[in-house]
Amino acid sequence: MRFKDGHLLGLEYADKEDIELILKTATSFREVLERPIKKVPTLQGKTVVNLFFEPSTRTRISFELAEKRLSADSINFSSTNSSVKKGETLLDTARNIEAMKIDMVVIRHQSPGAANFLAGNLGANIINAGDGAHEHPTQALLDMMTILEKHESIEGLNVAIIGDISHSRVALSNIHGLLKMGANVTLCGPATMIPREIEKLGVDVCYHVDDVLGKVDVINILRIQLERQEGGLFPSLREYHNYFGITRARLDKLSKPITIMHPGPINRGVEISSDVADSEHSLILNQVTNGVAIRMAVLYLLAGGENINA
User: Fold this and answer.
1) Which residues contact 106 (CB under 8 A, 6 or more apart)?
2) Shortest CA distance to 201 belongs to which of 149, 236, 167, 165?
3) pTM given for the model
4) What are phi and psi of 221, to 5 degrees?
5) Which residues make beta-bridge pairs with 183?
């Protein structure tokens, strides 16, 4: 199957059927990653450019591995060592790369809508690897895959997203994806980090983390973006940890264990304590592994794949 528009720009635009197809395909690729030889020839002859205008570790490496596991030719672009430094525009950069006969572009950019802009101007398949504070669809997909490994279904599941909602592309993609899959979603964080009227998306909002923890099955803890601390969104990191940090003491008060997730990078001792991040209920490293499988699935499906000849 091929996605309707040939791109993955965000989960706002995806149907439930699209999400289910990606998750099912990723499950098959997850099995490939457990083999001694972790490579299949499904994208042999395809060329993918990783166009990263923002720093990235997990996402970039995950996409690179996914491309290599599928036998695609992978090219990495960094704006710090490119003609962008000389004033070249995003469109000119992308068009010059496309003129080299590439098939797909994975883009991370600081501007919301950058992936959509490329999709409207290039003939290649575009995958959004994060555009500003807008969306990060493959992260939300790997989060949902990880949830499904622990819980039989997302339908009816109570999920809390805790932290800096306003500046998080992970939060928005998770909201769109989880709601389409039938979850009940609650957002929790300081009032300065919760967008106004976000309840219109169909989520609940709570400003007291202890009121949320006892009512949910899964918590996805967002990174506190330290680079934004100068904006005065909360008085101090210590105060944030006291009021919103997920600690063992908080979890020990609950009547049942809950699933712990975090998209990374983790600020240990701020939004989550080390003993929680490394606990038996933490699926943080599972998320990282599933990220490769999800990105393999997206690349494969956008290339027109139907059956996995693994």
Assistant:
1) 48, 49, 50, 51, 63, 127, 129
2) 165
3) 0.94
4) -95, 120
5) none
The secondary structure element, H or E, covering residue 204 is: strand 204-206
* Gap between the Cα atoms of 294 and 92, Å rounded: 30
User: pLDDT tens, position by position, for the chain (310 residues)?
Assistant: 446 789 999 999 899 999 999 999 999 999 999 999 999 999 999 999 999 998 888 999 999 999 999 999 999 987 665 555 556 788 898 888 889 999 999 999 999 999 999 999 999 999 999 999 899 999 999 999 999 999 989 999 999 999 999 989 999 999 999 999 999 999 999 999 999 999 999 999 999 999 999 999 999 999 887 654 455 677 788 888 999 999 999 999 999 999 999 998 999 999 999 999 999 999 999 999 999 999 999 999 999 876 454 4
Per DSSP, what are the bridge partners of residue 76?
50
Q: How many CB atoms lie within 10 A of CB 28?
A: 15
**Of how many residues is the chain composed?**
310
Question: Residue 47 class from Cβ within 10 Å (0-12 exposed, 13-18 middle, 19+ buried)?
Answer: middle
Strands 158-162 and 204-206: unpaired
CA distance readout (Å), 118 to 94, 97, 114, 124, 257 = 8, 12, 6, 9, 44
Paired sense of beta strands 104-109 and 47-52, if any: parallel
Tokens standing for 310? 């693994």
DSSP assignment of 216-276, as one string? -SEEEEPPP-GGGGGG-SSS-HHHHHHHH-B-HHHHHTSSS--EEE--S---BTTTB-HHH
Distances (CA, A) of 81 to 76, 84, 247: 11, 8, 41
HSE-up (13 A, CA, CB side) for residue 8: 32
What are 90's two structure tokens?
């995003």
Name the DSSP letter for residue 5: T
